[in-house]
Amino acid sequence: MTGTTGPTGATDPTGSLSAPGDPGAPLHLAVALDGAGWHPAAWREEGARPGELLDAAYWADLVAEAERGLIDFVTFEDALGLQSAAFHLPDNRTDQVRGSIDAVLLAAHLAPLTTHIGLVPTTNVTHTEPFHLAIGIATLDHASRGRAGWRPQISSRAADAAHFGRRPTPQLTEDDVTDSESISRPLRALFAEGAEVVEAARQLWDSWEDDAEIRDAATGRFLDRDKVHPIDFKGSTFTVKGPSITPRSPQGQPLVVSLAHATTPYEFAALSSDVVAVTPHDRAGTAAILTQVAEAVERTGRDVTERPLRTFADLVVLLDDEPGAAARRKARLDEAAGAELASDAEIFAGTPAELADLLLDWRSTGLDGFRLRPATLPHDLTAITRGLVPELQRRGVFRTEYTSTTLRGHLGLDRPASRYAKTG
Question: pTM of this prediction?
Fold first, then answer.
């Protein structure tokens, strides 16, 4: 699904120009999957499946449900250390979910079990080799036939470095974690390095031209070596010779998604991402953040006509059909957890219709879509796919069928040509 890109970077699948937030543009929905759900007591809720969190079948069920709801893409969390209630330090809690499976390997397993939905694993870019990251995501794009995305994430916990023993990373203090700007300031060098990792991966994805493989048994020519290119990338802390070992994938460039809360991550998104997920807490905050993202785009010199940047807002959601039921369920979960749910994103508890009202209100500020974090699984995922989605469809703002087979196509983003291909 491709269309005409306007000066703001928004694309209408019909081919007409449309600005972000235009009521005529399609609304996009993603779902962030994590363990038993985003509430720390979710694993104790009736209907949860805590004994299956490491089973591939559990995740297959969740993603199949998301695909039935015509969701654009799902994201999978990952980290280099055990989950923790503290942002910057490990903890020793035993009353919350701890332990996970590799997000890229999980997405690769799910690829042949799905047909349309985008699969976006998270990986760490601070302690992982760029070459390995690039071929892993390219392989996922081949396995899914063009539905791969990638959420690069820096290492914000100094303790993660101990797993590798190569170099230390900054230890955030209690003063650092008071707000988003304070968190990102000491990590600025890691964000800059992360942007280099993404650029190296993008060059590796382009290092094979689309027609580099000849595969002509009659002549004995499998490969046109002139169409496979070293990239000779030189970053501030690493170099990559290239080329990739993985031929160019169906999307050419798998979709890069980042989560951003502050000035430095906004700049990272402007440099590196196709989609940025932000975390406003009200309509006015949404407008203010979009202004900051636009300023970051201008500072970095990105041409959004050539490279559109889709903007999503994150929300933690608890949904029930009966008015007040979701709020009561949240109160019960909070009591079980021993503390009120806290999140970087806004927490919504209400009915699908009430959430639809909020989404359309915030969308009018210029958002392209939303990444919803179900507080409990599978309850709140099912409420999204069988409650929210039909409500949005009734309002004429969400698809009634998939019209593309690739993740870039779902978001109205063209397939880019390899930078190494000769033109003319």
Answer: 0.93
